[in-house]
Amino acid sequence: MIMFDRRLLVGFGWSLFFMTIAFSCLALLNLYSASYETGLASFKKQLVWVGIGIVSMILISFINYRILKRYSLYIYGLSILLLIYVLFFGKDVSGSSSWIQVGSLGTIQPSEFIKISLILALARFYDNDFQQGPYGFLDLIKPACLVALPLALVMMQPDLGTALTIILISGSIVLFMGVRKHSVAFILIALLALSYPAWNFFLKPYQQDRIKTFLDPSRDPLDAGYNAIQSQIAVGSGRIIGKGFKAGSQSQLRFIPAQQTDFAFSVLAEEWGFLGGIFALLLYFMIILWILDTSGRSRDKFSMLVSFGIAAMFFWHVLVNVGMVVGLLPVTGVPLLIFSYGGSSTLTAFIGIGIVLGIRMRKFSMSAEAIDLR
Amino acid sequence: MQNFKNRLVIVTVILGIAFLVLASRLWYLQVLRGDEFEEFSLDNRIRIERVPAPRGRILDRFGRELVVNRPSFDVYALPDEIQEVEGLSISIAEVLGLEPSVIEEKLISAKKISRFMPVLLAKDINRDQLAYIEARKSTLPGLIVEVNNLRKYPRGKLGASFLGYIGKVSKDELKKNPKINSNDLVGKSGIEKNWQSYLRGEDGFIQNVTDALGRGVDSTLFAKDLTNKKSVSGNDVILTVDIDLQSAAEEALGEEAGSIVALDVNTGEVLALASNPTFNPEDFIKGIDSKTWTELINDKSYPLLNRSTQGVYAPGSVFKVVPVVAGLREGVVDPDTLVNCPGRYKLGRNTFRCWKRDGHGWVNLRLAVVQSCDVYFYKLAEKLGIDRFSEYMKLFGFGSPTGIGIEERAGVSPSREWKLKKFNKPWYRGETVISAIGQGYVGTTPIQIAVMTAAVANGGAILKPNIVRKIKTREGETLVQNSAQVVGTIPLKDDMIAFLQDALIGVVNDPGGTGRRARIEGYTVAGKTGTAQVVSLDYQSDQKIHKDHAWFISYAPAEAPEIAVIVLVEHGGKGGAVAAPLAKQIIEIYKKLKETRDLDDNV
Fold this sequence. Notes:
The complex is a heterodimer.
Chain A lengths: L5 H6 L2 H23 L4 H21 L3 H25 L1 E3 L2 E7 L3 E3 L1 H19 L12 H16 L3 H18 L3 H22 L2 H11 L8 H14 L11 H4 L11 H34 L3 H25 L17 H19 L4 H8 L1
Antiparallel strand pairs in A: 1-2, 2-3
Chain B lengths: L1 H31 L1 H12 E6 L6 E2 L5 E13 L7 H12 L3 H14 L5 E4 L4 H9 L7 E10 L7 H4 L2 E3 L2 H6 L8 E3 L2 H5 L1 H4 L4 E7 L5 E2 L18 E4 L3 H11 L4 E7 L5 E7 L13 H9 L8 H4 L10 H10 L8 E3 L2 E4 L2 E4 L7 E3 L1 H6 L3 H11 L1 H10 L20 H8 L5 H8 L9 H12 L3 E3 L4 E5 L5 E4 L4 E4 L4 H16 L16 E7 L3 E2 L6 E2 L3 E8 L6 E7 L5 H22 L7
Parallel strand pairs in B: 2-10
Antiparallel strand pairs in B: 1-8, 2-3, 3-4, 3-5, 6-7, 8-9, 10-18, 11-12, 11-25, 13-16, 14-15, 17-20, 18-19, 21-24, 22-23, 24-25
């Protein structure tokens, strides 16, 4: 199953691998600064998580993606079970029960892993489906169910940020595969119609607050809007070259809340300025571009869609997170993958990269193996 | 698959645009608006702590302290460092004399705002309380004792009427002077108010770096150029007042309502400025409580009024100095002009009485002054006419503030125009004659009368009185130095001034003089009595009082005058009987003080 073919090593995506390592190092450097005042506890934990992540990435890259395809529904099912588990036995952290305690490393968040499981499940659905051309409304009922199940479970925790990314990632895949025009219209109307009850019955007051505050940040400058304003001050005051390592007053003096997690990018932009911010964005852009390139070189629908889905996952995280940090988007609690402190999201990102690496190094052997398997 | 490849191109374009948007936003925030956000971030972390400047002192002419500062020990609590709110409130409440629940509430409500902002628990604790807290510092974490400045009055109420009081700054004052802090205590009356700009000093500040929770941060990493500014102490105001004489004047007044003014006749310096009743400036040092304040402003005896400069009174016969000068100058009378006083004076249908019912008989000008014959002055004024008369009133400074250096009232110097403007009525001749004896519309403050007296004493120089002698910085640099300032001259030849002076000597020293009770053996006092008829409400019984104001003006020694002493006792009765002995008392003390003191009275 795991094939140590020499061609695999030659075809290994060294550039993606090293870009990912480089980005992790940048993230750790940033976290070192952001957690310095509080005794580096989160830095040390994250160091372990990144280690686990890199090892997982390498190991997963050796798994043939066809095996992933074969087991994708089991993986999906297991993830759903974990989501159900946390609803009942999860650890409550700041109002949402989305965590499972695992030993001394702290907690893991199954809602992060569901993103990968869902991508695999959707890719498998489209791979098995031989339909050509745009999908109609009825054709989409099955993938919609695949999405709706974890979405509902995540919303029940409640974890608005993850729910949003699930919608964005699966929406990207569905749109990429094509949807009939009148079906798009129908779905949009249905969503609008559903938004009213969703706003009133599903969103918690604090979530409504966040959205309202995004629309008008001056509404509540000391509470919810405070985060958005302080983050922009941090970013802006970094100016071109930044305030220097560990010298970001906004972050070191705790004007930015959640500076190690959701607002980690603020710290970078404050301490390393425009140059540092652009460097990180460029690296992220290259990683996504490289994943999309892998998707483009794929010769079967499954691997193409998996790569595309993982690219979408990275893309939406960076857009929503950095958009929030620079005040273009509401404060939603979506982390910047790899960059934000958090074991589960980091591990998810590394697993995603590992899958892409695995797909990339097998593209040369694809046709021969494909014949074999058929 | 080609289909998907095309879609991937579109996706890549979308990706590129999204990153371009994020990068542009970074450009906008960091490059275009970076400096602006840097300002915000500086504002975030830099707290400015004010260092209040100690107010300047107020000293008497010999440098003796009248108003100084004393440290006030104020107790604050740091909510963050207090774990057990309840325990602390009980242990500290007793020693501070507060209810435990009050402290608890303060701490709990403060914790909600910021856990790192100190909360004021008690202001100006006493030595015992301070000793208690200092001794138990280790068992009372989170308690801070801060030292601030409070006003202190080493001489108690002495001189309060002109020293003035301080109070919380008003909104108007804040608008006028943005440098004042809204918690500041500023001068509200007297020297404290009128010389506020010199006394205030300049506040300093300390810039601190604090974190988002308001906690002080030691690090200099987050602020490269913190600026601190030392406070500059307020300047010392050195008065012309001799506190010993002031003390004598206040003692002389005793319980009587009234005023005593002592002037250096050659310089116009105010040596004593007593006003009774007065207030206790100690009540104001922390900002007066509303109960005491209400009592003070509703007190019908007007303790907040400085009678020496703000009390407007009919001067009675002490005013006769003015028509004498006017009459001599205008040639209406000369020293030999004789008038028969039958005890009354008829003018048209009105009859004006002399204070001596039987009349003085034939009197010349000197005798008219010495015995204060009213009829003589009725006749003089009638000849003089109000127009010429009011010119001389103005010449002596009546109807205008003297410029002494604290708040004062202008009083009334009546004239035809004044009456037309004020009452829209013509002037009547009868009003001229009663003006000559200091009745009717004439309204004067004791300080104006003092200026007039000094002018006669010094041979004709009408001086601007000063209560502030010098202003010095704490380091000793002189900022203001007041010297004698002549604002007018009595337009009489020397022999005529000598004649007037001789008449005033006669008032005290002649056998029939009205001011005999001011006579001092071996030291010639000149003077003039006044008894002003008034009708006013008694503040104690709410009944009309017909008892007259007693006036006495004097200067001494007559041969080479040095000091003028003016006494006014409200509703005291006859000037010669009530006011003259008080003037004598002051002059005797002045003489004694001068003998025992080094003659050079420079500070």
